[in-house]
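Task: complex structure prediction.
Instruction: return structure tokens for all chains below.
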Amino acid sequence: MLRFIGKRLMMGVLVLIGTSMLIFVIARVVPGDVAMIALGARATESAREALREELHLNDPLPVQYVIWLGNVLQGDFGNSFITRRPVADDVRQFFPATLELVFMSGVFIVLGAFSLGMLAGKYKNTWVDGLIRVLSYVGIAFPAFVVGIVLLLIFGHNFQIMPILGRISPGVAPPTHITGFFVLDGILTGNFAAAGNAFLHLLLPSFALALGPLVQSARILRSSLVDNSNKEYMSVSTAAGLPPSLLTRKYLLKPSAGPTITVMGLDFSALLGQAFLVERIFNWPGLSRYGINAMLNKDLNAISAVVLIIGITFFLVNFIVDIIIVFIDPRMRIGRESV
Amino acid sequence: MEQQTKAMLSIEDLMIWYKTYRGYAKVVDGISLEVFPGEKVGLVGESGCGKTTTMKAIMQTLPADIIHVPQGEIWFEGQNVLTMTKEQLLKMRRTGVSMISQSPLSALNPVFTVGEQLMDIIKYSGQYSKANKKEMREVALEAISSVMLPDPERIMNSHPHQLSGGMRQRICIAAALVTPKHLLIADEPCSALDVTIQDQIHRMLRVLVEEKQRALVMITHSLGVARELVDRIFIMYGGTIVESCYISDLFSNPSHPYTVGLLECVPRLTGGGLSTGIYGYVPDYINPPKGCRFCPRCSKAMDICREQKPSPVEIAPGHHVACFLYGDRAQEKEAQNKTDYKAHGEGG
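Output:
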């Protein structure tokens, strides 16, 4: 088990090095003069040249990469041209917002997928299954931003029971910064009013983001459950007189959960990228929105930092999922340990 | 009819149909059989003749959504299995009947250790106090050693994929025997085992039945196994029971043409080259032959065989044959169909 974890971590480091090279090169070969964008058209040529020198833009790419990587390893992502602050500070401010959003979506995905999937599997080929199937098609077909707008119209505009913009209402002071998660910080500091307010703000955007992956995972779980319920071992366990609830909860669910959890892991990390449109609609001050702004403005340091952080998160989430899968399904242990 | 009150298991005119896209597959077509306490009964027939389906119907583990039972009753210890409540069914599975599956590679859950699966069976059998984990573990270890597996402790902690096919098959046998049940249904329990282990398992089953007044239904397609182990035998063909008799009668006086063919298929040490065997395959269950299901493959088929289903006739005490060659009707019809019968005889 330890060897497996070690190997996975080493592979992860290799993947991240590859990612960093790729994003470094792509960010720099995109057309457009960085110095022009950063300083504006009215800056003198000598000022621009000075900036290029400062950013090592005149050096060969490999040299630039090594300098950049050295700084990154010390936590220095350079300055942003847009916000004119260290990128690390920007990330520290915006990343928790996105992470909070994605994390809440993850909660929706896990709870929703398992309950809907198990319902559909239990009542397969009945109207319950049919209803969940239709819901799934709708959820998969509609992009998150459409779902977000529909939710805003219904709950924010028609019924006016949910806040529509931002992480917290303008009249409420954000809780003291500990983790950057408003809900968590509110609870930790005993500021329950702020925590509750932030939680209400969180519900709509995270649900909009979660719906697609949620119904997709539910469908996968449903088909695994139906497949496995026809396996001989289920018939044998039934014949042995085990109670029906134990059969479903334990003997059927555990061998069926693997594919669903794998897909959830992929979805969960993909949410970081997809969060942009939802953050845009709900005016959520998150990292995705920051990242898109950086890309549109060729903000080199910010782009590299955002992509690298998404890459690291992607790797970590899938690493955790792999470990969960190996714990659930012993058949994976042999195969994966030799990877 | 008097027998029914005494029989531990009695199946009466049972039909089981599978729903398919082409229509109903009439896999079990009116089967009747009884098993008495202390008796070892064999159920023999080709693959796909409905043996396993019939036995799974007793356990009620057939997939309910694709199964249709148009007629028939299954009585176990005085209760009709088909109308049992969930609680009665659970009780029957826990203390009444256990079944050894024929497919050892898929009969164990792949994500739990052998020990965990055995312990659950023991725990929910209701025969041990749930608090006494140590006692239950002893019972599980004993069951594993009883099927001649070495190092039970290690096997308890193994996952099924870490064991060989033969070991898994023996675990399945252990799981079926781990708590005492009245009736044991063994569905080709030794298909993956070598002859020495097979012999020991058979011996164990025999002791179990004879000493504790249990009953055994042994599904097999080996007449040799049947001869060695069972008292009475039912020969199945295409979802019907074509012949049933005491095992000694089967070899001295095989009567149904299918039984005769089966016996001819067994290679003999005394020579004679390959046997004549039986031509053809098991019938299509969606559009089965209208009359006797064996008639397309039968060298003695008469006109009536294509039109009507033969019902069982008792040709000797306890020896029933479902064939128009026997009984009163046969004699009437035989004269009338003589020419036809001769033509077939020469052809074969």
